[in-house]
Amino acid sequence: MSESPAPIRIAMWSGPRNLSTAMMRSFGARADTQVSDEPFYGAYLAATRDPQPMADEVMASMDCDWASVTAALNGPCDRPVWYQKHMAHHMVGPVGIADLPHHAHTFLIRAPERVVASYAAKRVAVRPEHLGYATLRTYFDREADRLGQAPPVVDAADILRDPAATLAALCTALGIAFDPAMLAWPPGRRATDGIWAAHWYGAVEASTGFGPPEGPAPSLDGEAAAIAAACRGDYDYLAGFRLVKETGPPAAGA
Question: Rounded to whole angstroms, what are the CA distances from 215 to 116, 153, 157, 160?
Fold first, then answer.
């Protein structure tokens, strides 16, 4: 009896407050796809003791060993596609993108001004390293060198502006068929959500699809503006490789 083909493992690298959970909902709406929610979060918290909301509960709820988490992510899957939602800033331990050699690595970005405004509303303090842009750029370059071409990059603004076109382009780049089921999902929490959903996922739990296009960029000042500015160069670099682009260059800070 022949063995089942290996799953298509998708490692979606992102940062916080970046449409990442809605994207996990989108892929989770596919009948052929299993999803994993930030599998390295527990290991990150155990290594850094970063004072994140619900940190003790998160660590108690999941595997916090870098090596065994990595082994599981490289292991078998019950469905043909395995979508893994990863936060770039979690990768502070002894493993990295090179330890997931059989994955299709792709990158989800969002303008840093919007991320800072959203993230700061949920957390007392934020630093550039919490947003993951530098690691996203490093991982993108490593994967581009390995592939000999740019891996897929999608921008949250493009997804909200035209989710069908952007997701179709992403699916093509990943070698899977676009499924219209990715455009809508039932509200509520999922068994696959991390325990931290109780703090972070309120808006997504109420959603039944992607939201409307983003409005004007938020106005930042002081430390918030400085944090966004520190991330802007890495964002602009990655945005140059977006799969779907608006006509003409994006407006500064958009």
Answer: 15, 22, 10, 11
